[in-house]
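Hello Y.,

Per our agreement to keep a running log of every chain we model this quarter, I'm adding this entry. I've kept the format consistent with earlier entries: sequence first, then predicted structure.
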Amino acid sequence: MLSHFCSSAKSANTKIIQAFQVICLRMIGNASWYVTNIALHNNLKVTTIR
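Predicted structure for the entry above:
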């Protein structure tokens, strides 16, 4: 649902939403700073915003 919402958002807003998503996923997954965003999305089986 979030991906559908973000497809119509402007570029600047998409970056803010994506940063918020990554912060939330890091908290949910208890991920360290050195875990890449792609690895985080793959491990939690979440699609990226873009």
